[in-house]
Write a structure and sequence with these properties.
The chain is mostly helical. It contains 4 helices and 2 strands; from the N terminus they run ααββαα. Helices cover 70% and strands 5% of the residues. It has a two-stranded antiparallel sheet. The radius of gyration is 56 Å and the shape is elongated. It has a domain of 60 residues.
Length: 193
């Protein structure tokens, strides 16, 4: 909007083309911005220098005070009960507040959780890889499949022959039993002996 106003003003005044006015206005704006930045940087630089000189002068005149030492608090508390008994409770040093066993247990817990978080996906990936390797159908060579077909035909032929043999055996057994029955009937009874 400022540029439109400057262009309109330059056009009304007849001071050049509308294209040269924005360039001149932009250059003037940039120059003003640079001057303001330089003035601010100089002001900050002067304030820092004065504070440094003041600190150097005060250091030479008086030493910087050390922070106060923490008070020695008693590490024991005495508690009086309602019947007048006194109980003394000692507070362990700050580095002994948490027992070492609790620290060991917490470390073991977090290591176990980390192991589960990292190990479970790895175990699943390993199991899937094993399934892909062993789960596929085994490729049988053509010569083995031809031998298996020939073996299958031979076993079928043997089964037919065994069936014929068993049929013949049944026939022979039936004939022998009929002859024995016929012989028993034709023989005289054993009363005359």
């Amino acid at each position: 909007m400022v540029m439109k106003t400057l262009n309109g003003y330059a056009t009304l005044q007849g001071q050049g083309t509308p294209q040269s006015a924005p360039r001149a206005a932009a250059a003037a704006t940039q120059d003003a911005q640079r001057a303001a930045d330089r003035a601010l940087a100089d002001q900050i630089r002067d304030e820092v220098r004065t504070s440094i000189t003041a600190a150097r002068q005060s250091r030479g005149q008086a030493a910087i005070p050390a922070p106060p030492a923490p008070p020695n608090l008693p590490r024991e508390f005495t508690i009086r009960g309602p019947n007048g008994e006194q109980t003394v409770i000692g507070i362990p040093p700050a580095n002994e507040i948490i027992p070492q066993q609790a620290v060991d247990i917490s470390i073991a817990f977090f290591l176990t959780v980390a192991l589960i978080i990292i190990g479970l996906p790895l175990a699943r990936a390993f199991a899937r890889r094993m399934d892909r390797k062993g789960g596929g159908t085994a490729q049988i060579p053509t010569e083995v499949s031809a031998q298996l077909a020939h073996l299958n035909q031979a076993v079928d032929a043997i089964a037919v022959e065994v069936e014929r043999i068993s049929e013949g055996q049944r026939f022979t057994t039936r004939l022998l039993s009929e002859q024995r029955d016929a012989a028993h009937q034709s023989l005289p009874s054993g009363t005359g002996r």
